[in-house]
């Protein structure tokens, strides 16, 4: 009977040691799984193709000006690009314009039409309403914060002249 008790004790002691030693040699390999959905379009941009008719612009109004000025009669450009339908994970959008800018004043969009020395000043709404935060520079991104998955991206400007001496009549195409 004593022998049986000792045998049971040794067996229990061995079982306890086996259990204790197996926790010291826990499995070191595992699997991590990450899942996501790739969506084709996270946002929709409306108004990408806009034509703004500035009407007839009088050369004489610009011939009197010097140094990036705009006459009172200068047409104002105000358009928006509507960014909508952005997913919950999208909180900001970056817009990077590409245009030919004046080499000395990069916010000035160069006319690709036949008229010379008339530009779009992207920082002005008139000769006195200048705001550098409004300015667009080619190749430089601007960031806009979304509200409920949407934002309006404003593009504004006014026709300006760099120097009266170089103005020629012709077409404007920006």
TrEMBL record:
InterPro entries: Adhesion_dom_fimbrial_sf, Adhesion_dom_sf. One of its GO terms (biological process) is cell adhesion. Residues 1-26 form the signal peptide. The keyword Signal applies. Gene3D superfamilies: Fimbrial-type adhesion domain. One of its GO terms (cellular component) is pilus. Keywords: Signal. The keyword Signal applies. Coiled coil: none annotated. This is Type 1 fimbrial protein. The lineage of its organism: Bacteria, Pseudomonadati, Pseudomonadota, Gammaproteobacteria, Enterobacterales.
